[in-house]
Fold these 2 entries.
Entry 1:
Amino acid sequence: MAWTEERIATLKKLWEGGATASQIADELGDVSRNAVIGKAHRLGLKSRPSPVKAGEAKGKAKAKAKVASKPVKAAPPKPKKEAPPKPVEAAAEAETEKPAAPKADTATSNKPQPTPNAGQSSPKIVSVGPGGFLRQGPGDQQPPIPPAPPRRLVPAKPSPEIADKTSLLELSDKVCRWPMGHPGEPDFHFCGEAVNPGFPYCVEHCGRAFQAQLPRGARRPPPPLPFGGPRVR
DNA sequence: CCCTGATTCGC
DNA sequence: GCGAATCAGG
C-alpha cells in the first residue's frame, strides 16, 4: 500500500495526537509498526516519548548478512555526527500559533453545527470535570503533555456546546485537539470545542493540560491529569 | 516476555 | 522512499 496523501495526513495527526506507532499502524491498516515509524521519521515528525535514550545511536549496525545480497560491502568509517548541545525548548509553542496547516485541511475549519444532537453523547466517553478521571483502558494513550505550562491561564468564554464529534480530519487551529477515547475505536474523536485563544485546547482541557503555577500555600492537591503529567512539587 | 520508538540499510 | 531487521529502554 502506498502512502497516499490521506494516509500521510492520518499518520501525522495520529502521531501528533499521541497515538503509538502500533495504534497508527493498526488504524491505517496494511502497514507495519515499523513502516509507520519509518514514515513518520521521513516526514520529519519524531521525537516523542521514546523508550530508547538518544545517547548512543548503536553503531552496531553489524553484519546483517541475513538477506545476503551484497556479499561484499565496503564499510568506510562512517562519521558519526554529534548533536551539538541544543537546549530543548518546545515550550514557546503555547504562545506562538504557527499557521502550518495542511493543504486540504483548512477548509473544514469552519463548520456550523446545525444538528444539536442533544443527549446523544457516547456513553463510554464522558467529559471529565476537574478531578475526574478518564481512563478507558490500559492501552489508552496520553494526551500531549505541555512542555512548559504558562504562568497564567487566560480566561475565555466557553462555547455553548459542540455536540458533533470532531474527527481527526477536522482538526484545525480553531478547535480543541484533546483526544476523546483512543484511536482505533469507532467513536474516537477530538474535543472540537473552540480553542482557548493561544492554546491548542479548549478552556476546559486547558485546565487539564496546563497546571497553573500557584503561589506557595495554594497548591492544588490532586493533579487532574490521569498520569504522566508534570509533577507539581 | 511484553511494549515502545530509533536506527540502519538492502531494496 | 520504503520497511524489515535490529537495537535499546521501560
Entry 2:
Amino acid sequence: MGHGAPQRSVRESCRRQVQVPSPSSRSHTCSVSRAPAPSDMAHQLAQSGRSRHHARRSNPSPPRRNDALRVSLKGHSPGSWLVSLAARHSRTPPHSPASSATKFARHASANSSSFLVVELRMARSMESGDGGGGGLVVTELSHIKELVRQLEAHLGGSDELCRHLTTEIFSLTERSIGIITAASSSSGLDARKWEYAGLASPLPATPTSDVADGPFRSTKKRKVMEKRKQQVRVSSPRGGAGENPVDDGHSWRKYGQKEILGAKHPRGYYRCTHRHSQGCLATKQVQRTDEDPALFDVIYHGDHTCVQRPAVAAAPEHNPDANSFLQSLTAGLTVKTEGLPALAADPRGWSATAPFYLSTPTPASGCPATAERSPFSAPSTSENWGVSPATSDSNHVASYLPFEDAGWRGQNELLEVVSALVAASAPPAPAVDGLDELLDIDDVDIASFFA
DNA sequence: ACAATTTGACCAGA
DNA sequence: TCTGGTCAAATTGT
C-alpha cells in the first residue's frame, strides 16, 4: 500500500538490467559473463537460501547447541514472572544446587537421563517496570548464575554435555541480565526494539508503533510503518543454520532483502502469500540478531486479513495451528495455552514465545512423527514448527522440538519433568495453568516482562 | 508452467 | 543525502 505499484515511473532500467555478481559474498546468481562450473555452482547453491531444501536433505543436522537446554523466562502474571532453568544431564544425575527461599531445585531422574530444574519465581513491582523490578530480577538472575556455577562444580568436569549445559545456562543468564540492565539503564525499554508481541511498551509509542488506525494517517511517518507492529525474537529451528526462524503459521513470500546499516546480517522482507489473492497486507521482517545468529528478530506489520486454512483442517483438534504443528513436528509436544493477561489484550493474542526444546519422545508408534528421520533433519516440515500467531485469538501454541539424542528416550521423561515443573510451580498468584503455562516459555525475552 | 527467491533499482521519509 | 522498504525482472526450483 505504501507506494502505488503503477507509480513506479520508469522501469526500463530494470528491464534491461543484467545480473552481475553481487558484491556481497552470498551472491550466487550466475553471472552473465561467467557460468560457474557445476561444482562451483553446487557450492554456491549449498550456501544459498534457494538451495536450502536440498541442503537440508543432504546435510544431517548436527546436534544443536540448544538441544539440551533452554533458559526460559516467562511472564507469569501481571505481577510476577517465572524463570525456569531446565538442564538435562544424561548419565550423571546432577545434584541439587543450594536451595534458597526463592529458588526451587528439583531433580527428576528417569532412565538414563536426569533433569535438574531450577525454578525461580519472583515478584516484580507492577508499576516500576523500568526500575525496581529490574534490579530485583538482575539480582535473582545473578543468583541463578551462581547456582549454575555450583551445579557445574557438582557435576564434575568429565562430562562434556554437563559442561556444555552449564555453560549455556550461564551465558544465557548473563545475556538476560545484560538485556535487563541495558533496557532499564536507558530510561526504560526501547519501545521500538522491544515491543514484543502483545506486551505493550511502557514508553510512548514511537512513530513506528502501532497506534495507527489505518495505513494512511499522519504525514510525517512512513506510510509503511503506520501499521501495527510487533516484534518477537525467535530462535532458528536449525540452530542458526536455517534462513528463517520458526514458522508462524502463515505463508510468507520474500520480496526483498536489505543490508541494514550497523547490522551484521541482512534483513529479509516478507509479505503474505495471499497479498494479491486476498489482499492481505501483512508483512514481516526477519533479521538475525547480531548477538546470536541463531536468534531472529521478527517484526510483523499489519494484520492478516487472509483466510488461511491449514492443510490439517480436517483434524479433530479445535486449534488448526496446533494440528499443523503436530503434524509437522516429527516428534514433539504441542501445547496450547491460554493467553497471558497482557497477551489477551492483543487481538492476535500470540506471544513472543520461542521454542523450548524439552525432550525427544521419538516413540516407535503412536505419534504421527516418523522415527526414521531425525527431528532436526525434517526438511519439509522443519519450517512448520514453532509458535503460531496465526489464528488463535486468545491462545497460542508453543511446540517443542525434541532432542536428537538416542539416549534420550522418553515421553515418560518429558512428562516427568513436566510434572516436576508443575509440582514445582504451584503459584500463589493467578495460577499457572499447569503444563501449559510452564511450557509456554519466552526465550530470554526478559525485557518484555518489564513492558 | 508455475511458484518462489534473488537482487538491483526505485521511492519516500528522516 | 542517506537509509530503509518495496518493486519487479531475472533466476532458480518444483
